[in-house]
Structure to design on (585 residues):
């Protein structure tokens, strides 16, 4: 699995010094959770500002919904000279010191870069830095928000430092942005938003990266200007106000729910900041902490991710199960369970009968978070492996729409388009994937472009000769013809399900390991299991043994005796439960 975690040492040292001091609070908002020490005032203010920033981004880019695959967490700290960001699979942590005005500007810049990464198609560095700088300079006065000011500490670009746009647009990687680069990128972002050219900027990026146009061609097609004229217009705009006034979203911070954190919860946050930096020592220390805090779901969630990222599936599954047993309601634990069943591979299917074996956990993840892109992606791959190309396209297209900068998602969607016979669509997706920043995806996309359509041509030749290929299995029919229809159909199905069900089954899924001593299959197609665990005998009901989710075996066996099993179930009484899934060892 890929890793992309950034750790800033000064942030960690500061957070460590605050740990023993006072009570910590968490404030939950629509898109984020904010933390503060001592009281919840700073957390509420950080949450309010964060939500206003997200609403402004949504308004500028006309996005009805902004999502974060990984939870956005703001740490409101004190006496912090430099804001910092740490990205982990359990949370993207951004810090802020609200006693310093310039601190929020840097935090706003970091959050905007996260929003672009997860909600906007792949773009060049100048665009990302320019939009981030533009929003970092926003000023809020009461109910009014004014955009167009440079962020605190940034001076508008001077003529002597101006980088010609043909050179600026040639920069596709940016190890460390310079002050001149940041300043000129802000000027471009200010011009784009201030003149309402967001759509043209998107068309420019698409021409550049999806069709392989040069910067000069893309500028001419999108902005209807030569690159020289665009350069001149942006420079001249610096002498104009170009201010944009918006009605600031009203967010009553006193209505945001707040809760006290236990010392164990605070310690988990602290340890998360270093757990994913590759150090075996940090992992070992987290394991020691876990042994003293067995009932904390957060520590098991963190360890599940840490072990899975290291390829240690045996340890990962133990913490996945424990987190689920502790009523962890996060989508990612169900996704990780499915990932474990797939032998830890998030990019391809490794097992037989993948769709029924992975589908239940992935759909549970999506029930808890319909915007969880990794679950859509793995579900699409499972559907594709079963030959259900239309359903696979729906799932893969959703994943791509939710994470538009994931190059591999385009690669996998191209495979579904090719399997459906849509070679032109597959070619465009492969071209886009090839232009990403993942070298492995770039290489694979280039190779597949060279092979595009050859297998289908071979199948036609075989058919003409009367030879049937074992690979040429018929596609399963699907009720979906496109993504919009799929979404509408699912919404209708969900609405119908809600109207016909008097009460939803809100019981939590729990976990138990033990020995299966007997199976009663007298009432077809039901079954009753007797499982010995920790000195007690549990009785589990299986509504339909032909459709139960099985892991570790391909079929249900009424003759099972003395078999080690793991059961995910919903409790129905004392030592009784309804089986959700059954795993044999």
């Amino acid at each position: 699995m890929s890793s992309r975690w950034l750790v800033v040492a000064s942030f960690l040292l500061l957070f460590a010094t605050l740990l023993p001091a006072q009570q910590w609070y968490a404030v939950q908002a629509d898109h984020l959770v904010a933390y503060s020490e001592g009281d919840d005032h700073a957390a509420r203010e950080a949450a309010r500002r964060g939500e206003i920033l997200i609403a402004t981004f949504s308004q500028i880019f006309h996005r009805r919904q902004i999502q974060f695959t990984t939870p956005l967490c703001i740490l409101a700290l004190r006496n912090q000279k430099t804001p910092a960001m740490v990205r982990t699979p359990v949370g993207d942590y951004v810090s802020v010191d609200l006693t310093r005005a310039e601190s929020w500007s840097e935090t706003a810049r970091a959050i905007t870069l996260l929003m672009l990464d997860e909600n906007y198609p792949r773009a060049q560095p100048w665009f990302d830095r320019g939009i981030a700088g533009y929003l970092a300079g926003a000023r809020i006065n009461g109910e009014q928000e004014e955009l167009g000011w440079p962020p605190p500490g940034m001076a508008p670009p001077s003529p002597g430092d101006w980088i010609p746009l043909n050179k600026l647009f040639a920069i596709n990687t940016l190890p460390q942005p310079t002050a001149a680069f940041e300043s000129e990128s802000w000027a471009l972002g200010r011009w784009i938003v201030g003149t309402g050219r967001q759509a043209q900027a998107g068309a420019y990026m698409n021409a550049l990266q999806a069709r392989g146009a040069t910067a000069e061609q893309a500028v001419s097609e999108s902005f209807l200007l030569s690159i020289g004229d665009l350069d001149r217009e942006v420079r001249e705009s610096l002498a104009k106000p170009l201010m944009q006034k918006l009605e600031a979203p009203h967010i009553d911070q006193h209505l945001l729910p707040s809760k006290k954190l236990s010392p164990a919860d605070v310690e988990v946050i602290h340890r998360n900041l270093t757990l994913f930096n590759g150090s075996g020592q940090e992992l070992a220390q987290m394991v020691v902490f876990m042994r003293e805090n067995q009932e904390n779901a957060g520590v098991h969630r963190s360890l599940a991710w840490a072990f899975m990222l290291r390829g240690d599936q045996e340890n990962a599954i133990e913490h996945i199960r424990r987190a689920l047993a502790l009523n962890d309601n996060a989508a990612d634990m169900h996704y990780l369970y499915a990932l474990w069943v797939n032998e830890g591979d998030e990019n391809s299917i490794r097992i037989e009968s993948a769709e029924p074996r992975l589908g239940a956990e992935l759909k549970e993840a999506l029930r808890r978070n319909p915007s969880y892109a990794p679950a859509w992606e793995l579900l699409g791959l499972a559907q594709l492996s079963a030959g259900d190309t239309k359903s696979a396209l729906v799932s893969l297209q959703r994943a791509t729409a939710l994470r538009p900068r994931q190059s591999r998602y385009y690669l996998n969607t191209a495979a579904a388009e090719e399997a459906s016979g849509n070679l032109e669509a597959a070619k465009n997706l492969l071209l886009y994937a090839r232009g990403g920043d993942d070298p492995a995806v770039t290489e694979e996309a280039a190779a597949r472009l060279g092979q595009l359509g050859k297998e289908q041509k071979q199948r036609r030749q075989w058919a003409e000769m009367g030879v049937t290929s074992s690979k040429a299995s018929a596609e399963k029919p699907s009720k979906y013809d496109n993504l919009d229809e799929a979404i509408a159909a699912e919404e209708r199905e969900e609405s119908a399900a809600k109207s016909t069900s008097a009460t939803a089954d809100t019981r939590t899924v729990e976990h138990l390991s033990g020995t299966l001593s007997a199976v009663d299959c007298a009432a077809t197609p039901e079954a009753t299991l007797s499982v010995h665990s920790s000195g007690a005998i549990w009785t589990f009901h299986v509504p339909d043994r032909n459709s139960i989710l099985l892991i570790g075996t391909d079929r249900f066996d009424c003759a099972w005796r003395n078999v080690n099993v793991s059961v995910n179930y919903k409790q129905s009484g004392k030592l009784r439960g309804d089986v959700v899934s059954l795993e044999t060892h």
In short: The domain at 510-584 is CATH 2.40.50.140 (OB fold (Dihydrolipoamide Acetyltransferase, E2P)). The longest strand covers residues 510-520. Residues 2-10, 467-484, 497-503 have pLDDT under 50 and may be disordered.
